[in-house]
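hey
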């Protein structure tokens, strides 16, 4: 019987996850269908319950429900506990297993697709929302010298410093350390509104990569500004999207799909 999966969010029409998972299923011969579910803002748990009752095996969870998914899970992977967010749910009998694959998706995109070594490097993480929190545990595991988190609302960056300890330092946009960074990651949603995080100091070391977790149009302004400010290389978050999907697919199916052809397919269609 065909196993059912979906991505749940609000809004959801823009999601590329069905295309990505369909491509993974074709390539690996897994028998599954993967759809989009629009959940009402106040109706996440009920929508998930209906999907489970209809035989659903697992869900990807996107904005604004990653916290709701965290609370709904009856078990949580350690990396999900650290992130306090869940983007992947597995339904196994009465168990609801929650995990987050965003961090590993980002680190694989940086390492495997872009050839960036994080060990010993200086990382600037711009933004302190859900996505920033989700990726910090995986970034720390990759062994950077330091992660500086800069956020518009200083208190949210300070909270991440408190949570993650001495290798994570909080800063404001106007109070960044003078030493430049090897990897600068935009984890804000500013690009969706055509805005830029106002970094007030040159932040790029020679050879630095500027990375925007947003992809497509929403990443263009940040990446153009980064080039103009001296970033040697730039990349948007499409690779992260594909890599986090591959990790979810692996959690559900025990099979690791090849991501390169799927990323190439999405880039060609963009
Ligand atoms: P949140 O709403 O949780 O956080 C938004 C962050 O952006 C906050 O730090 C907020 O600052 C900051 N921000 C918003 N507008 C501005 C602005 N005009 N200037 C400066 N800072 C601003 O969103 P998420 O963390 O969930 O998502 C962030 C981005 O990451 C989104 O674009 C999302 O699409 C992308 N993403 C990509 C993924 C991928 O697979 N490629 C996976 C997950 C997320 P403040 O705290 O001051 O409000």
């Amino acid at each position: 019987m065909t196993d059912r999966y979906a991505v749940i969010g609000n809004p959801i029409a823009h999601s590329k996850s069905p295309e990505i998972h369909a491509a993974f299923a074709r390539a690996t011969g897994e028998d599954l269908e993967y759809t989009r579910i629009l959940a009402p803002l106040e109706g996440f748990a009920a929508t998930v319950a209906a999907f489970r009752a209809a035989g659903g095996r697992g869900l990807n969870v996107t904005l604004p429900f990653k916290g709701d998914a965290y609370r709904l899970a009856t078990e949580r992977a350690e990396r999900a506990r650290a992130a306090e967010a869940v983007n992947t749910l597995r339904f196994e009998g009465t168990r609801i297993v929650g995990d987050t694959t965003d961090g590993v998706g980002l680190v694989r995109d940086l390492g495997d697709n872009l050839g960036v070594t994080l060990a010993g490097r200086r990382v600037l993480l711009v933004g302190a929302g859900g996505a920033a929190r989700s990726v910090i545990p995986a970034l720390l595991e990759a062994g950077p010298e330091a992660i500086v988190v800069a956020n518009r609302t200083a208190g949210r960056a300070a909270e991440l410093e408190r949570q993650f300890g001495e290798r994570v330092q909080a800063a404001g946009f106007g109070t960044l350390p003078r030493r430049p960074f090897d990897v600068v990651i935009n984890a804000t949603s500013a690009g969706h509104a055509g805005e830029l995080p106002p970094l007030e100091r040159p932040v790029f070391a020679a050879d630095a990569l500027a990375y925007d977790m947003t992809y497509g149009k929403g990443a263009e302004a940040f990446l153009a500004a980064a080039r103009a400010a001296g970033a040697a290389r730039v990349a948007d978050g499409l690779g992260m999207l594909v890599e986090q999907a591959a990790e979810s697919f692996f959690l559900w199916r025990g099979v690791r799909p090849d991501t390169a052809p799927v990323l190439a397919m999405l880039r060609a269609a963009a």
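Residues 63, 102, 105, 127-132, 151-153, 156, 187-190, 192, 195, 197, 213-215, 237, 240-241, 244 surround NDP (CB under 6 Å). The mean pLDDT is 96.
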